[in-house]
Design brief:
Strand order of the largest sheet: 4-5-6-7-11
Mean pLDDT: 80
Radius of gyration: 17 Å
Number of strands: 11
Largest sheet: 5 strands, antiparallel
Helix content: 25-40%
Number of helices: 4
Length: about 190
């Protein structure tokens, strides 16, 4: 009988071979999906053109006009997401705590008590970090930090906008969310 580790290694190798990417690229997607609870991924890998994001229904790669690369990431991530759903990881408290503490002290700009975000990035000179477990979204616009209550929205990434407005929209399980839709609870 094959172990989960063997199944995972075979899955990674098969997906890499089928889609013409390296095993390391597939691993980057898998690890990002693990950090995102199996439903979202944010990572950077050269095989996907640099910074990339995936959530069912939203795929972004380094070159936003490369539709074939988006399709490739979408297919790989969807299969890996299904794998994670069917093979949930056993919690490893010490390992998880160490990663969270390490990430919280690794030059983070958001409040330390929030821990590690499920999604973080920047666009149009604004930074964001989403913390679904705390129902919080933290925004930094040129040094002005604002914290929002996301309610029942589980923010999974930023929606790519080509407008000239200096605002970001986000993607949750309910669809597109504007910052103006959220309750601001703190500003510095």
């Amino acid at each position: 009988m094959m172990t989960n580790t063997q199944k995972e290694a075979e899955l990674i190798a098969r997906l890499a071979r089928q889609h013409g990417v390296t095993d390391a690229a597939v691993m980057a997607v898998l690890e990002a999906l693990r950090r995102g609870g199996g439903t979202m991924a944010q990572f950077s890998h050269v095989d996907f053109g640099g910074m990339s994001q995936w959530s069912s229904g939203m795929t972004m790669v380094g070159d936003m006009f490369d539709d074939s690369l988006k399709a490739k990431l979408n297919t790989i991530a969807a299969e890996l997401s299904a794998y994670l759903r069917d093979h949930p990881a056993k919690p490893q408290r010490d390992d998880t705590s160490y990663r969270s503490a390490a990430m919280a002290h690794a030059g983070s700009w958001w409040p330390e008590e929030f821990g590690s975000p499920s999604a973080a990035g920047s666009q149009n000179n604004m930074r964001y970090a989403a913390f679904p477990e705390q129902s919080r979204l933290v925004m930094d616009d040129h040094g002005k930090m604002e914290i929002y209550d996301t309610g029942d929205h589980r923010i999974s990434g930023v929606s790519q906008s080509q407008s000239t407005a200096s605002t970001l929209t986000f993607v949750s399980q309910h669809g597109v969310v504007r910052v103006s839709d959220l309750k601001r609870i703190s500003a510095t």
